[in-house]
Inverse folding.
């Protein structure tokens, strides 16, 4: 098969059904949160158990959040942000999702 024909077949790929595209988008959002929690936790040098203790949660719950296995509620996200000593920033713009934790600044006395 000629290379030009590969390109043509790739371009003719059928569009993804709406329900599949929606599930993919939800997974990407969940993964963005999971990555942000993991990155901030490791930045602070905390284990999942230590973070769970700070947040009043179980280690298993932290593991499910970092594994994208659960969709946290707003109160739970608030607990996480406090425990991570950071502000939670979520930007939803069409198909783009950005989740970050911004560390709180503590002034030296």
């Amino acid at each position: 098969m000629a290379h030009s024909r590969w390109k043509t077949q790739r371009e003719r790929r059928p569009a993804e059904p709406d329900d599949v595209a929606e599930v993919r988008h939800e997974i990407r959002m969940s993964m963005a949160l999971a990555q942000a929690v993991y990155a901030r936790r490791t930045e602070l040098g905390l284990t999942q158990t230590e973070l769970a203790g700070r947040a009043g949660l179980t280690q298993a719950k932290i593991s499910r959040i970092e594994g994208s296995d659960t969709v946290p509620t707003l109160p739970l996200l608030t607990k996480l942000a406090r425990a991570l000593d950071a502000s939670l920033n979520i930007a939803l713009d069409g198909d783009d999702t950005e989740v970050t934790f911004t560390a709180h600044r503590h002034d030296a006395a």
User: Anything to note?
Assistant: The domain at 22-102 is CATH 1.10.260.40 (434 Repressor (Amino-terminal Domain)). Helices lie at 3-11, 18-43, 48-55, 59-66, 74-83. The first helix runs from residue 3 to 11. Residues 34 and 73 are 14 Å apart (CA to CA).
